[in-house]
Amino acid sequence: MHTRSTARGATVVAALAAVPVASAHGGEAAPPMPQWLALAVLLVGVAAAVGSAYARRRTSATVALGGAFAGLAVAATGAVGLVQLSPVETLAASQPAISRAWFGPLTLGIGLAIVVGSLVVGRMRWPDRPRYAALGMLLGLWVAYPVIVPGSLTNPVGYLLAAAVLATVGYVVWRDASGLLGRALADRPSRWFGAGTGTIAGLFFAFSMGMLTFVPEPGGGVDLSEDFVTTARVANPLVYWPGVEFHFHDFLGTTPLSGVLSVGMVGMVGTVAVLVGLNAALLAYQWRANDATGSAEVTTGTAAVAAPNACCCCGPVVAELAVVSVGPAAAAPLYWLFVDLASPVGALFFVTSVALLAGNLARAGRRSLHS
């Protein structure tokens, strides 16, 4: 269990979108329910959240927010179930859609393209805000880091890059959106909606990535009928991080809980979860502030804030949706693009999520200064 879980932790942080190979769900045991049932729960939750957004035209903002939050909670439950019930054993024997020999050049090319593109676009469009170009360039280096830095997993540059990315994200949000977010978080319903949505997002990513699981795989000579907590050295994001591996046999009734958490994992997932929560709080604030405004304006604002959140949250279930739709064998190549540590897809998903979420907050903050 220790070896497998440590490997799982390494795979996990290759991407927020990854469903790790080592987190095989249940080993040879039959899943407790079919995967399509989890998909049905996911769709019900999405329908409830979208329906609440449209019902906003005919009801108060507070009621609509309550319905949207309930829908998000149900959707997250279905998404977690979709990943936890994944037929990993079937997929593990499959081949990736792209030869692994291409992963290195693709990773380098994508990373450098982001660096150069961020510099050019940042200087041309926002010459008075060099922090935008700096953040984009750092995110590009995040993607290219495993290829351009020798001994990447143990190189101190990796720790500096991780800290620089998190600090720059915080600086951009603070400089451009602190005033607007301060007003949004001062509104109690908006604050609670943001906190709840961010928490759901964090748990969703943790379970979908294999950091936490209710269906641990036996192995490694460890008795899963016993509780344990031990330290582990976890690879990625970028470098090795100190971590904790644990297993609680009867965590929820007779349902076990296992997981691997590291400083790097928590920092990466926490960053995205906080950004999702801040965007959600901003959405709630807009709904409440425009309670007497026409529905067209409210709907437009909702789409502008909700779109980045939807984009960042869809990645972890893309492969599993393919599994349900076309079957494990046909979906395996797509699955491997997300799972393989050498694939650039996972890192690209993370940096895109951060750029969209932080960029949306910065844009909203700039607009609030001119309104």
TrEMBL record:
Superkingdom, natural source: Archaea
Naturally occurring in which organism (per UniProt): Halorussus limi
Protein name: Uncharacterized protein
Segments traversing the membrane: 36-55, 62-82, 102-121, 133-151, 157-174, 195-215, 260-285, 344-362
Keywords noted in UniProt: Membrane, Transmembrane, Transmembrane helix
